[in-house]
Amino acid sequence: MTPRRKSAADRRAEIVATALALAGEMGPHKVTTEAVATRIGLTQPAIFRHFPRKDDMWLAVMAWLREQLSARWEDALTAPAHDALGAVVAAHLDFVSRLPALPLVLLSPELRRDCAALAEETEHLMAAFMAALSRAIRLDQTAGRLSGRTTPEDAAQLVLAVIQGTALRWAVAKQGFDLKGQGIRILALAISGLAP
User: What are the residue boundaries of the HTH tetR-type domain, all occurrences included (predicted)?
Assistant: First the structure.
């Protein structure tokens, strides 16, 4: 029996997942369409049927990341939690810990330099994360869990710096520590000044 061909959507998803896996192994700037094709067992022209340019593949990666992260942030914000900010940060760090390529892709100077649209998408993703953090902080301020002395936007900048710094250290340390546990612990220390 001949194996059934994958749908275009399934093949695109497989290409995106493979690009992310390779980015985690070798760094995003070293990922080629040829390497993706080889890993999947396709020809390079087959990759180009789904993504005419390498930039298109990376834009699809970024779209997938944004969709996945946004869903997790929203779930954390709408869950009956006693700590909206902690829930958003925990959801984010949990996703990053399962996808070591994420900080590498977002912070890759080569990808940002070589693909202006990708740099723009990265900025949109960061803006969406800032909005989710600000919303969580506002919820916690309204509930009296955080002080209202600082604007949610300023507090979100602090939280984002903690998350990015911890994720970058984790990536450099080759995932050598519990990202979620350490991130939550450092976040608690950083926001202790925001307590009511």
Answer: 9-69
